[in-house]
Design a protein that fits this description.
With 436 residues, this protein is α/β, with parallel strands linked by helices. The chain has helices at 23-33, 49-58, 60-64, 77-82, 102-108, 144-154, 161-167, 189-203, 210-229, 234-254, 257-284, 289-318, 321-348, 354-362, 373-381, 387-399, 403-435; strands spanning 5-9, 38-43, 68-73, 89-94, 97-99, 117-121, 133-140, 173-177, 183-185. The chain has 2 domains: 5-188, Alpha-Beta Complex (Spore Coat Polysaccharide Biosynthesis Protein SpsA, Chain A); 204-435, CDP-alcohol phosphotransferase transmembrane (TM) domain (Four Helix Bundle (Hemerythrin (Met), subunit A)). Strand 1 (5-9), helix 1 (23-33) and strand 2 form a beta-alpha-beta unit. Helix 11 (257-284) runs antiparallel to helix 12 (289-318).
């Protein structure tokens, strides 16, 4: 069951930004992921409504998600209960709350009878003691008058332990432990550090390859933290990544060990920084279809441009036409590969990124007609074709003086990859037609 209304208590002192968003911005955007659209923002009397609402109304992220914020001073809060403004169930939360959207679903399903208010508490002790209030509650509409009176009596919107006890009296409230879902109001430096660690964890992708998961993400998340402090946006990072990638190909095409090593280093750097735009977008809720498409197209352009210039650089160093021939084979194979991928994703709707294709191939052994040795081998080799693996492999080979050997490997793998994808996508599209 989804509850679409929330009452958010605005702190008297606005909290500092955490990873690119103010506490209020983050709580609104996170709650909207769980289906909340109607927000009543409760602040102390004397707070200017424009100071609270203007930044939100100007931000397209809130408009695109259909978020409707309304500011109500504490002295007028009780009147909402008599005017039919409050629905049968609503969320009550603090503006400094950082939480996992999944915890809202847990709370909403905790009392199917809809007979009690629910408060989220931190995990209790081993002796059965209840944890402290975690800053989030799910309330019945009938409880609103009591809550409004308790807040008005205190004359404050902060939910300390005393206020939480008054608003959520134990006999009529069901406690629900947060469990593994993060939920905590950020009111101290230590809480801010915990929230930052949790949020950075949400910026990672479960589909990361070996090198991304174990090496690249440690660097990219550090860079993302710094870029968010500078208010850098995801698209700006994507343009920088593309520029670094193009520059890597230019150096690679100049020839000579030094240029090749610089190009390989830039190619690896582009792969690492490429994680920052996605991390930034997820942390600041700036994920967009255009941004995702641009990122994928930029990755493909960088990849092809680098491996187009690698044989050119080898030719300039040796004047051996063999490298141009191998480069032509690799280039044609790559173009054919991306053409097939484009056709496949358009017809099947599987997703327009290589990771989606890789996952599909990895699962091929579970499908009838896809359990042959070739499919088994392709599924096992999928990690080799991930960008993080290729970028790190190129860097290590070239810096260690193995550019020629690496180009030879590419000249073999690129045609094999293109040929396999051609036959694989044909079989998958036939399978999709049969299933339809």
């Amino acid at each position: 069951m989804r509850i679409s209304q929330a009452v958010i208590l605005i702190s008297s002192e606005p909290g500092k930004k955490i990873l690119g968003l103010s506490p209020l911005e983050r709580v609104l955007l996170t709650a909207s992921q769980a289906g909340v659209k109607d927000f009543i923002l409760v602040g102390r009397d004397g707070v200017e409504e424009a100071d609270i609402l203007s930044p939100l109304l100007k931000d397209k992220r809130f408009r695109e998600r259909g978020i409707r914020p309304e500011f109500v001073p504490l002295s007028r809060l009780a009147g909402l209960g008599t005017g039919g403004r409050i629905r049968s169930r609503f969320w009550l939360m603090e503006d400094r709350l950082v939480f996992a959207p999944a915890i809202m679903e847990k709370a909403a399903s905790a009392d199917p009878s809809l007979s009690r208010d629910i408060r989220i508490v931190a995990n209790g002790g081993a002796d059965g003691t209840e944890g402290s209030f975690a800053g989030l509650g799910l309330c019945l509409g009938a409880s609103f008058s009591r809550i409004a009176s308790a807040l008005a009596k205190r004359g404050a919107t902060e939910l300390d332990a005393e206020a939480a006890a008054a608003i959520f009296p134990a006999p009529t409230t069901q406690p629900v432990e947060a469990g593994e879902d993060y939920c905590e109001p950020v009111k101290s430096r230590e809480a801010a550090r915990r929230a930052g660690r949790y949020l950075i964890g949400t910026a990672r992708k479960p589909t990361d390859g070996f090198f991304s998961r174990n090496f690249n993400r440690h660097i990219s998340t550090f860079l993302t933290r710094q870029l968010l402090r500078l208010n850098v946006r995801p698209m700006e990072i994507s343009f920088v990544v593309l520029a670094i990638g193009i520059l890597s190909g230019i150096f690679e095409g100049k020839g000579g060990y030094r240029n090749a090593a610089i190009g390989a280093l830039l190619f690896e750097l582009a792969s690492i920084v490429d994680g920052c735009d996605g991390e930034n977008a997820r942390l600041t809720h700036r994920i967009s279809k255009f941004g995702g498409t641009f990122d994928i197209a930029g990755d493909a352009a960088t990849f092809v441009f680098f491996f187009l210039n690698l044989p050119i650089g080898l030719y300039r160093s040796s004047r051996n036409d063999l490298w141009l021939a191998l480069g032509a084979v690799s280039f044609i194979s790559m173009i054919f590969f991306y053409f097939q991928i484009g056709k496949f994703t358009k017809r099947t709707g599987i997703g327009n990124n290589i990771v989606a294709i890789a996952k599909d191939i990895e699962k091929s052994s579970e499908r009838p007609g896809f359990a042959g040795k070739l499919d088994w081998m392709a599924a096992k080799l999928v990690p080799v074709y991930r960008r993080d693996f290729f970028a790190t492999g190129a860097f290590l080979f070239i810096v260690c003086g193995g550019a020629k050997l690496f180009m030879g490997i590419i000249a073999v793998l690129a045609p094999l990859e293109a040929a396999y994808i051609y036959f694989y996508t044909r079989r998958r599209m036939k399978e999709a037609l049969v299933e339809a």
